[in-house]
Amino acid sequence: MKDPLVAFLRHLASEQDASPHTLRSYRADLLEFVQHASHGERGEWLAAVDTRTVRAFLVRLHERGLDAVTIARKLAAVRSWFRFLVRRGVLERNVAREVRGPRTPKKLVSFLPVDEAAVLMDARPAGGPERPRDAAVLELLYASGLRVSELAGLDLDDVDRARQTVRVLGKGRKERIVPYGGRAASALAAHLASRGDDRGPLFANRRGGRLTVRSIHSIVRRRALACGITRRVSPHTLRHTFATHLLDAGADLRMIQELLGHSRLSTTQRYTHVGTDQLMRAYDAAHPRARAK
Description:
hpI Integrase, Chain A
């Protein structure tokens, strides 16, 4: 293996079908570790890496003021790389697995209460030819819980207007079918009436090119500010709101997992909240001594 790092990145791209963003992140994190562990020298430095090397790398990251989440991500990249090298026979053991990572705070991604979500959806977008498109973007994000990259990647052929579903290519190039409701259907119909039924991206910019992830972020942020919502609202906020509102209304967690395209149920559990009101209703209904006589 001439270049272990290049071989690993090629493995991620070809066999794991990692996205360009993921590949860039892995490459940057691992080049940082290589620089630390090899001291800029060429040669068989990998064989000399031990747990002290990895711990020293984490200490260095901490001294630079990086937060625990970023440090944990970089450690995870090193662990994945070393696991690959063990399987290929380059290393005897994965020393990075023996190093404990930093404790990361369990951050809860914000979501919108039902009334704020309604305000966001019902507000009229800014005028101009993009108005129907922007309204459809907001409605479909909230109605389907799609990742922003998934929404940006939709083509007109992916939409089944009769069944009100979209065919989505998610992480790991896994395909799934996601339904959307009547409000989103109406918004899409208005958008397509102004866009035309030609093939191509479902959401396009003024030049006809595919709407970018950054542009979708801007659409969501502008609408939230125009509605007077002071908290930070992003496409991911709407994805989280979608899951939370389904859960609060009694939807099964595994159904939500399928809709969100999560491979693990534990990931879905981190994305969802149980509101206090719902918790109290469940307690009052279930506990034999919840109500006073």
